[in-house]
Give the backbone structure.
Amino acid sequence: MFSQLRRYILTTLLLIFCLPRSHWACTLNSGAQEKQKDWWQTGQFYQIYPRSFMDSDGDGIGDLKGVTSKLEYLKDIGVTAAWLSPIFTSPMVDFGYDISDFYDIQPEYGTMDDFRELIARAKELDLKIILDFVPNHSSNESEWFKKSVARERGYEDYYVWVDARYDENGNRIPPSNWLQAFRGSAWEWNEQRQQYYLHQFTVQQPDLNYRNPAVVNQMKRILRYWLEQGVAGFRCDAVPVLFEVLPDENGIYPDEEKSGLTNDPDDRSYLKLDLIENQPETIDMIYQWRQVMDDHQRIYGGDTRVLLIETYAPAWYTMQMYGNSTTEGAHLPFNFNLITELENGVSATKVLKAVDDWLLNMPAGRTANWVMGNHDRGRAATRFGPERVDAMNMLVMILPGASVTYQGDEIGMTDGDVSWEESKDPAACNTNSSIYQKYSRDPERTPFQWNTEKNAGFSTATQTWLPVADNYETVNVEVELAADRSHIKVYKSLVELRDSSKTLQYGDWKYKALNENIFVVKRYLSGSETIIYISNLGDSAETIDLTTNFDTTLPETMNIKISSVDSKKTEGSTLQLNNISLEVGEGLVLSTA
């Protein structure tokens, strides 16, 4: 009893004195922390945009057989789980995010047999496949929507339908001033039904009504169906817009206030989003989906089926997605801080804020994750500069938790050049030739660069669905694997270190921005090696003293474990910690082992 009391007092004191502060964080190293972690807690997640990954039949569009043919590549670079952007039946207005049949495969991607072959081959390689679940809306070509338009029994309220308003001249106007993500009103008039329907995205993507239990049950059936096909979980798209505020007693929806962020009245950011995003009911729906995951595992056994949530919401809302003291939520709400906080340029202080905003808000006992890029934002090498790609890949691998890589970021792919005439993204096509580049997501979706052959080895087609980036002859998998030093070899070394290092899997951490340019992370664990990450994210060379400016307990020297491609430092050599010179973009991983 006394030993338990003493342990309690000691733990309490440690908690008091180890409270994270601004640019400095520390954690307790207890026996509980060294408990075997689940596969997803330290996993390498890899996002595949199937349309642009690998084309197996020469039509210029990536497909499931193409993905299957490249699973050994994923295994070779150390991927734990591959997440596929939507592969379900779709008119492809928003390239799969407008789903007409949630239970079948888009024909240009393949068949259910192709999907089962993919699952079987992934299982042979011990790779997990995660699907993109799009719960907020369907396509307007869905049978559900057609039945709802016709007011068929059971489908009358499957979508958010509202009567029109009328101005003082008797003209019909939308029910509120809400705006969609792709410019313009979020309401569309349906002549047959004589009502407006809500669409937070294109007019072809009507919002499902989650206040209808039939919709909730239908979406859970979809989750169970694909779990039964062997998937390891889901990444859930656009979750914060799942619910909107209720109308008043007269059926009238309130208008959003102006945000003051732009003068463009058609841009979604022209208005605040308080009424159509981040509603409390959405959090409960995440908890319900988690129950579906857990129930399936309990019934069928096997590894954990994961729930990953896309959210660009503020921390106070996002952190609720993890769950609470009584209910489990998402395993990983995706952390986009390294995208949003660094939107207007990279610096050590911005990285500091991105890391702080997650780790200092994350509930105790939860797992962090770090996302550097995705299909909706410019590629990391374009946003940060090719010279910083290795340093940023190091960062997401050295920080605690899971890492998420967008296809091509491991080889330093940059945004492709897509003209107005070649544009396919509705976010761009809904604008005009003078401003489309501000909105287009096509540049980060150009075909994957495999080798120096035609179309970068992606396809034998005369023309691919989007043009291949111009630099494919020098930036591709084949060239980089053959080189003595390359981005992909740095990436592979990082994954190997994460997989083998108890320090990175279970260790504590400290981090700090030493100045505007230099960011440093320390990972440490009693009885294991200490690992240091340090990078120069600025535009000029720097010389720093880690022992004085970061941690006086560090040894005089450490071994260079991994260095960025352009670094002149030799891996395996020792480095004086009180006099480290770093060139622009240079990143280093050091170890006491």
In short: The chain has two domains: 44-136+213-490, 143-198. Residues 1-23, 25-33 have pLDDT under 50 and may be disordered.
